[in-house]
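Researcher: I'm preparing a figure for a lab meeting and need a structural model of a single chain. I don't have an experimental structure, so a prediction will have to do for now. The sequence is pasted below. Please return the structure as tokens so I can convert it later.
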Amino acid sequence: MALGLGEGAELRTPMALTVIGGMITSTLLTLLVVPAVYAVLDRKP
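Model: Understood. Here is the structure written out token by token.
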């Protein structure tokens, strides 16, 4: 879908790229940012 192959692909390609970008962003947030924030907030004074 993101490769732009086939009939009507020029309409589907932007949506496919948006979905793929969102999946990559959410994966990075889940695997890297969320645990780091928990580690910072869990520090004991």
